[in-house]
Amino acid sequence: MRSALTIAGSDSSAGAGVQADLKTFAAHGIYGVTAITSVTAQNTRAICGVVDLPPEFVRSQIEALAEDFEIAAVKTGMLANAGIVNAVAEAIRTLRLPILVVDPVLTASDGRPLLASDAIAVLKNVLFPLAEVVTPNTVEAAQLAGIKVGSLEDAREAARRIHDLGPHVVIVKGGHLEGAQAVDVFYDGRIFNELAAVRISGSNLHGTGCTFASAVAANLAAGHGAATAAEKAKAYVTGAIEHGLNLGRGRGMLDHFWNRG
């Protein structure tokens, strides 16, 4: 069994963050290990509190895992601040960890910032050049690219600009765009590809971004190329949304094991 590392925040409701990543890895037959960046107190209705871990301790977690596991892929999520971004990037470079998928988590779904404003430039300049794949949604892509993203053409332009920062592949997730289909834009520096799925109505959407990025990482860890990994991740997330779970009193979450047979 291959192993993948998620470097992200802990979601106490287990709908997003490292908990969603671990479930996604497991659903793909990948053994997941974790380096936690932040601990949140949250439920399906709100984030009640956040405690960020010291950057040096985040790095210690990564080092402890890298010396013991043969890590096939790395996925990052919530990184909280510039110190953690720098620590993660330095660990990845020093330890020569492979196949980095960066989910650039900037804000929570309720608008609460999850990455300090002064860390965005560090994310773009230090971590993106190390990435195999970067997976912003349209809101994140707009902030990272410095343009408005309200259409597929805007998403393509944002993908171009983000690709210029160094990642091999950019996938702009289109869930926030209007239309009967949810269309993601895949760009590898040469060609664009559109990944489309029927838009599923409802509120069982908590953790979709984390889950998509970790599904991409899991498929890359399994040996698939980036285009195939993206297609498989899109299909997996679509099914997880369709089979979503209403377990709390707020937003529902995905069923990460919807395809367990």
Task: Please provide a written account of the structure.
The protein has eight helices and nine strands. 37% of the residues lie in helices and 21% in strands. The chain has one domain: UDP-N-acetylmuramoyl-L-alanine:D-glutamate ligase (3-Layer(aba) Sandwich), CATH 3.40.1190.20. It is globular.
Architecture blueprint of SSEs:
Layout lengths: L2 E8 L6 H11 L3 E12 L4 E6 L2 H12 L4 E6 L5 H14 L4 E3 L17 H8 L5 E2 L3 H8 L6 H12 L5 E4 L8 E7 L4 E7 L9 H14 L4 H17 L19
Parallel strand pairs: 1-2, 1-4, 4-5, 5-6, 6-7
Antiparallel strand pairs: 2-3, 7-8, 8-9
What is this structure, in a nutshell?
The chain has 8 helices and 9 strands.
Give a quick set of tags describing it:
alpha/beta, 8 helices
Termini separation: 20 Å
Largest sheet: 9 strands, mixed
Measured as a percent range, the helix fraction is 25-40%
CATH topology: UDP-N-acetylmuramoyl-L-alanine:D-glutamate ligase
The CATH architecture can be given as 3-Layer(aba) Sandwich
Q: Let me know the average pLDDT.
A: 95
Q: Give the domain tally.
A: 1
Name the CATH homologous superfamily: Ribokinase
Low-pLDDT ranges: none
